[in-house]
Amino acid sequence: METHNALSANKDGFLRDLQLFCTVARRSSFITASTEMGISPSHVSMRIAMLEKSLGVKLFLRTTRRVSVTSDGEAAFQWAQKILEDVQGMADAFAGLKSDPRGLIRISTSLRLGREHVSPILSLLRKRYTGLEIWLELLDRRVDLVGESFDIDIRVGDVEEPHLIASKIVDSMRILCAAPAYLERAGTPRSLSDLAQHDCLLFRERDQRFGVWRVTGPDGEKSVKVTGPIASNHSDIVRQWALEGCGVIMASIWDVASSLESGALVRVLPNHQQPADVWAVTSARASSSAKIRVCVEFLKEQLTSGPFALITRGVGGP
C-alpha cells in the first residue's frame, strides 16, 4: 500500500524515473546515462535511489568500475520498457504519424538478410530520425514476436499467425541453382525427380521442412525429398558450399543474384520456384505506433528501390 501511494503521488516523475532507469540499465553507467539525459550524475544516483525505495528492491549493483543490473532490476527493466512503450504507443495513436518519431524499436530478421540489407538500411533510418533507438537481432529461426518482445520481424515466406499484422515488403521467390563445376560433374537436373539423384545442400531455414523442398512449377505445387552429404544451420555456409561446386541449393533469388550475374552459380529447373515474399510483421498493438509505421515504410522503400534493395527480378530466369 505504501509503495502504491508513493508511485501514485507523482506519476509524471515516476515515468521519468523509469526512463532514466532504462537508460542506466542499457548503458551500464550512471555517467553515460547522465550525459544522455542532460542531468548530473549525482541527480541520476539520487533518482535511482528514490526509485529503488519506492519499489522496495535494489535495481543495480554498483562498484568503482561498473554498474550491473540485479535480478530484481532485470524484472523491473522488462516492466519499465513495457510501461514506457505503452505510454508512447497511446500518445502516437492519438497524435498521428509524427515527423520525428522517438523511442526504442526491436527488430528481428534472418542472418544474411539482416547483415547485407536490413542493417545498413537501419543505419540510414537512424540518421534520418535521430530520436530512434534500434536493436537488431539476427536469427535463422521464426521468432515469437510477442513472447520475445520484438516490434518488427522481417521475414521470408508466408505469415501464418492470425494474430499478427503483415505488410508485404517485396514479391520474391526461392530458386534452385548450382555451380557450373558441379553440373559438369553430376549433370543438369531435367525434372524434380532427378533431384533425388543429386547432392542437395540442406539448410534448415526459418519456415522450411528439413529435407523437403516444396516448389511450384507447370504442374502446380509439388514436394520433393532431397538429401546430400553435407548440411548446415547457417545459410552462408550452405551458399559457400554451392559456390564451391558441392551440390544444388535452393535460395532466395536476392541472396544469389550477384552469383547468378557473375556466372558463379547457374539456375537449374528454371520453371520451378518457391514463393518467398518478404514481409514486415508486427503485433496488432505495435502496428498503431507511429515509430513502427515509419520504420516499416522506410524498410519497404529502401528494400525495393534504395542502395541496399533486394534484387528479385530479371536474374537467372528461364
List the helices and strands and how they pair.
Layout: H1 2-9, H2 11-27, H3 30-37, H4 41-55, E1 60-62, E2 67-69, H5 71-95, E3 103-109, H6 111-128, E4 132-138, E5 152-156, E6 164-170, E7 173-178, H7 180-186, E8 202-203, E9 212-217, E10 220-225, E11 231-232, H8 235-243, E12 249-252, H9 253-262, E13 266-267, E14 274-275, E15 278-283, H10 290-305
Parallel strand pairs: 3-4, 3-5, 8-11
Antiparallel strand pairs: 1-2, 5-15, 6-15, 7-12, 7-13, 7-14, 9-10
Task: Briefly summarize what is shown.
This protein has 318 residues and is an alpha+beta fold. The protein has helices at 2-9, 11-27, 30-37, 41-55, 71-95, 111-128, 180-186, 235-243, 253-262, 290-305, and strands spanning 60-62, 67-69, 103-109, 132-138, 152-156, 164-170, 173-178, 202-203, 212-217, 220-225, 231-232, 249-252, 266-267, 274-275, 278-283. The strands form five sheets. Strands 4-3-5-15-6 form a five-stranded mixed β-sheet, covered by helices on one side. Strands 7, 12, 13 and 14 form a four-stranded antiparallel β-sheet that branches.
Report on this structure.
With 318 residues, this protein is of the alpha+beta class. It folds into 3 domains: 2-73, Arc Repressor Mutant, subunit A; 96-171 and 277-305, D-Maltodextrin-Binding Protein, domain 2, CATH 3.40.190; 173-275, 3-Layer(aba) Sandwich (D-Maltodextrin-Binding Protein, domain 2), CATH 3.40.190.290. The chain has 10 helices and 15 strands. The strands form 5 sheets. The protein has a 5-stranded mixed β-sheet with strand order 4-3-5-15-6, covered by helices on one side. Strands 7, 12, 13 and 14 form a 4-stranded antiparallel β-sheet that branches. A two-stranded antiparallel ribbon has the order 1-2. A hairpin with a 2-residue loop joins β9 (212-217) and β10 (220-225). It is elongated. The termini are far apart. Mean pLDDT is 85; it is low at 1-9.
